[in-house]
Amino acid sequence: MPAGAGRRGLPPGRHLCWLLCAVTLKLCQADAPVREEKLSVSASNLPCWLVEESVVAEECAPCSSFQAKTTPECGSTGYVEKITCSSSKRNEFRSCRSAVMEQHLFWKFEGAVVGVALVFACLVIIRQRQLDRKALEKVRKQIESI
Asked: What keywords is this UniProt entry annotated with (predicted)?
């Protein structure tokens, strides 16, 4: 048979591997933290907590349904903290990441890792059994031919 002729595509079992890799990548992208939006360079558009000294007035808390609709800072994480700027005495909201949310994402990731590990462990066991059967069949044929 000339080079390049024969079956096309991936060998059996590789399709499943690529499928699992694609699913894992999709899960990781869904769990990836949302990056902060880039702020414009002009000082007038910058939040006061970036320009001057600030104090956290209210700790990081989930947004209410009203805040989720009206406050743009709620959009990225769903959590905000109230900031009071020292010089201008302005109160502003800042998006934040809560410990509860981080813990939830961590355990979600751990679950995905354990799930993928179990799938691949099962694939290894199945492949090992196939190889054992082939080896036993080969030995049986050698014994019969004597």
From this structure: Cell cycle, Cell division, Cytoplasm, Cytoskeleton, Membrane, Mitochondrion, Mitosis, Signal, Transmembrane, Transmembrane helix
Distance, in Å, from the CA atom of 146 to the CA atom of 140, rounded to the nearest integer, reads 10
Q: Measured between alpha carbons, how far is 49 from 90 in angstroms, rounded to an integer? A: 9
- pLDDT tens for 83-114 read 888 888 888 888 888 888 889 999 999 999 99
> What angle do the packed helices 14-31 and 99-144 form, to 10 degrees?
170
The span from the CA of 141 to the CA of 122, in Å, is 29
Total residues belonging to the chain: 146
Structure confidence by residue, pLDDT tens digits, 27-57: 666 555 544 444 444 556 778 777 888 888 8
Please give the structure tokens belonging to residue 141. Answer: 């044929």
- Cβ atoms 77, 97 nearer than 8 A: yes
